[in-house]
UniProtKB/TrEMBL annotation:
Residue ranges crossing the lipid bilayer per the database entry: none
PANTHER family the record matches: FAMILY N-ACETYLTRANSFERASE, PUTATIVE (AFU_ORTHOLOGUE AFUA_6G03350)-RELATED
A GO molecular-function annotation: acyltransferase activity, transferring groups other than amino-acyl groups
Origin superkingdom: Bacteria
The entry's keywords: Transferase
Name of the featured protein: GNAT family N-acetyltransferase
Methyltransferase among keywords: no
N-acetyltransferase domain span: 18-168
Keyword Transferase found: yes
Length: 168
Protein backbone atom coordinates (compact mmCIF):
# COMPACT_ATOMS: atom_id res chain seq x y z
CA UNK A 1 0.00 0.00 0.00
CA UNK A 2 1.41 3.40 -0.95
CA UNK A 3 0.23 6.72 0.41
CA UNK A 4 1.06 10.08 -1.08
CA UNK A 5 0.79 13.31 0.84
CA UNK A 6 -1.66 15.61 -0.94
CA UNK A 7 -0.51 19.17 -1.48
CA UNK A 8 -3.37 20.66 0.56
CA UNK A 9 -2.43 18.91 3.80
CA UNK A 10 1.11 20.29 3.95
CA UNK A 11 1.47 23.41 6.10
CA UNK A 12 4.87 24.10 4.51
CA UNK A 13 5.47 23.09 0.92
CA UNK A 14 7.84 20.28 0.03
CA UNK A 15 9.05 20.49 -3.53
CA UNK A 16 8.66 16.79 -4.21
CA UNK A 17 5.96 14.14 -3.90
CA UNK A 18 6.15 11.89 -0.84
CA UNK A 19 5.47 8.18 -0.99
CA UNK A 20 5.30 5.61 1.79
CA UNK A 21 6.72 2.20 0.94
CA UNK A 22 7.73 -0.91 2.84
CA UNK A 23 11.26 -0.65 4.21
CA UNK A 24 13.83 -3.04 2.77
CA UNK A 25 17.17 -4.29 4.09
CA UNK A 26 19.16 -1.69 2.15
CA UNK A 27 17.31 1.06 4.11
CA UNK A 28 18.82 -0.10 7.43
CA UNK A 29 21.80 2.26 7.50
CA UNK A 30 19.69 5.28 6.53
CA UNK A 31 17.11 4.48 9.21
CA UNK A 32 19.83 4.04 11.81
CA UNK A 33 21.32 7.43 10.86
CA UNK A 34 17.87 9.01 11.13
CA UNK A 35 17.41 7.64 14.68
CA UNK A 36 20.92 8.50 15.89
CA UNK A 37 20.86 11.96 14.28
CA UNK A 38 17.46 12.99 15.64
CA UNK A 39 17.54 16.40 17.32
CA UNK A 40 14.95 15.10 19.80
CA UNK A 41 17.68 12.88 21.25
CA UNK A 42 20.34 15.50 21.92
CA UNK A 43 21.76 16.40 25.32
CA UNK A 44 20.46 14.29 28.18
CA UNK A 45 18.54 12.06 25.74
CA UNK A 46 21.57 11.18 23.55
CA UNK A 47 22.43 8.00 25.45
CA UNK A 48 19.07 6.45 24.52
CA UNK A 49 20.02 6.23 20.83
CA UNK A 50 23.84 6.34 20.93
CA UNK A 51 24.27 2.67 20.05
CA UNK A 52 20.86 2.12 18.50
CA UNK A 53 20.78 0.18 15.26
CA UNK A 54 17.91 -0.53 12.87
CA UNK A 55 19.24 -3.64 11.20
CA UNK A 56 18.06 -5.61 8.17
CA UNK A 57 16.81 -8.30 10.58
CA UNK A 58 14.61 -5.77 12.38
CA UNK A 59 13.19 -4.54 9.07
CA UNK A 60 12.36 -8.10 8.01
CA UNK A 61 10.80 -9.03 11.35
CA UNK A 62 8.55 -5.96 11.73
CA UNK A 63 6.26 -3.92 9.52
CA UNK A 64 8.61 -1.02 8.86
CA UNK A 65 7.65 1.67 6.35
CA UNK A 66 9.55 4.67 5.03
CA UNK A 67 8.38 8.02 3.71
CA UNK A 68 10.52 8.91 0.73
CA UNK A 69 10.76 12.00 -1.40
CA UNK A 70 11.32 11.58 -5.11
CA UNK A 71 14.66 12.92 -6.28
CA UNK A 72 17.40 12.14 -8.74
CA UNK A 73 19.00 9.67 -6.30
CA UNK A 74 16.03 7.33 -6.07
CA UNK A 75 14.28 8.79 -3.06
CA UNK A 76 15.43 10.44 0.14
CA UNK A 77 14.16 8.92 3.40
CA UNK A 78 12.18 11.65 5.16
CA UNK A 79 10.85 9.48 7.97
CA UNK A 80 9.80 5.99 8.97
CA UNK A 81 7.79 3.94 11.43
CA UNK A 82 7.68 0.38 12.64
CA UNK A 83 4.50 -1.45 13.61
CA UNK A 84 4.77 -4.50 15.88
CA UNK A 85 1.71 -6.74 15.72
CA UNK A 86 2.18 -8.83 18.87
CA UNK A 87 1.77 -7.16 21.23
CA UNK A 88 0.35 -4.31 19.12
CA UNK A 89 2.72 -1.34 19.34
CA UNK A 90 4.06 1.54 17.32
CA UNK A 91 7.70 0.78 18.08
CA UNK A 92 9.51 3.54 16.18
CA UNK A 93 8.42 6.75 14.48
CA UNK A 94 11.00 9.26 13.27
CA UNK A 95 10.87 12.20 10.88
CA UNK A 96 14.06 13.88 9.68
CA UNK A 97 14.66 17.09 11.64
CA UNK A 98 14.82 19.31 8.56
CA UNK A 99 11.32 18.29 7.36
CA UNK A 100 9.45 18.23 10.67
CA UNK A 101 6.29 20.31 10.77
CA UNK A 102 5.39 19.54 7.16
CA UNK A 103 2.83 16.77 7.68
CA UNK A 104 5.12 13.77 7.21
CA UNK A 105 4.60 12.46 10.76
CA UNK A 106 0.84 12.81 10.37
CA UNK A 107 1.03 10.94 7.05
CA UNK A 108 3.07 8.15 8.67
CA UNK A 109 0.53 7.84 11.51
CA UNK A 110 -2.37 7.63 9.04
CA UNK A 111 -0.51 4.92 7.12
CA UNK A 112 0.25 3.05 10.36
CA UNK A 113 -3.43 3.15 11.33
CA UNK A 114 -4.38 1.75 7.93
CA UNK A 115 -1.83 -1.06 8.29
CA UNK A 116 -3.03 -1.80 11.84
CA UNK A 117 -6.64 -1.94 10.64
CA UNK A 118 -5.69 -4.28 7.79
CA UNK A 119 -3.96 -6.55 10.35
CA UNK A 120 -7.17 -6.70 12.42
CA UNK A 121 -5.96 -4.51 15.29
CA UNK A 122 -8.39 -2.25 17.12
CA UNK A 123 -5.80 -0.50 19.29
CA UNK A 124 -2.07 -0.25 19.80
CA UNK A 125 0.26 1.28 22.30
CA UNK A 126 3.04 3.84 21.96
CA UNK A 127 5.68 4.61 24.54
CA UNK A 128 6.55 8.17 23.62
CA UNK A 129 9.78 10.06 23.88
CA UNK A 130 9.07 13.11 26.09
CA UNK A 131 9.63 15.71 23.30
CA UNK A 132 7.13 13.83 21.09
CA UNK A 133 4.27 13.88 23.60
CA UNK A 134 2.49 16.87 22.02
CA UNK A 135 2.78 15.31 18.56
CA UNK A 136 0.98 12.14 19.70
CA UNK A 137 -1.81 14.23 21.27
CA UNK A 138 -2.23 16.15 18.00
CA UNK A 139 -2.52 12.98 15.90
CA UNK A 140 -5.20 11.45 18.10
CA UNK A 141 -3.39 9.21 20.55
CA UNK A 142 -4.85 9.04 24.07
CA UNK A 143 -2.57 9.13 27.11
CA UNK A 144 -3.01 5.89 29.09
CA UNK A 145 -0.18 5.93 31.62
CA UNK A 146 3.53 6.13 32.22
CA UNK A 147 6.37 3.81 31.24
CA UNK A 148 8.75 4.08 34.15
CA UNK A 149 12.48 4.66 33.81
CA UNK A 150 14.66 1.70 32.90
CA UNK A 151 18.23 2.77 33.74
CA UNK A 152 20.81 2.88 32.38
CA UNK A 153 19.29 2.82 28.85
CA UNK A 154 16.34 5.11 29.62
CA UNK A 155 16.76 6.94 32.95
CA UNK A 156 13.49 8.93 32.72
CA UNK A 157 9.79 8.14 32.79
CA UNK A 158 7.96 8.31 29.45
CA UNK A 159 4.32 8.92 28.56
CA UNK A 160 2.40 5.93 27.29
CA UNK A 161 -0.32 6.40 24.68
CA UNK A 162 -2.86 4.31 22.84
CA UNK A 163 -4.15 4.66 19.32
CA UNK A 164 -7.67 3.34 18.89
CA UNK A 165 -8.10 1.97 15.39
CA UNK A 166 -11.67 2.34 14.17
CA UNK A 167 -12.96 -0.13 11.64
CA UNK A 168 -13.85 1.45 8.30
Amino acid sequence: MRHTLPMSSRPFPISQPITIRRAVARDAKRLTRLVRGSGAYEGKYAAAVAGYRVGPDYIEEHRAFVAVGADEHGGRVLGFYSLVLAPPELDLLFVADEVQGRGIGRLLVAHMQSEARAAGLDRLKVVSHLPAEDFYHRVGAVRTGTAFANPPAVPWDRPEFEFRIPSE
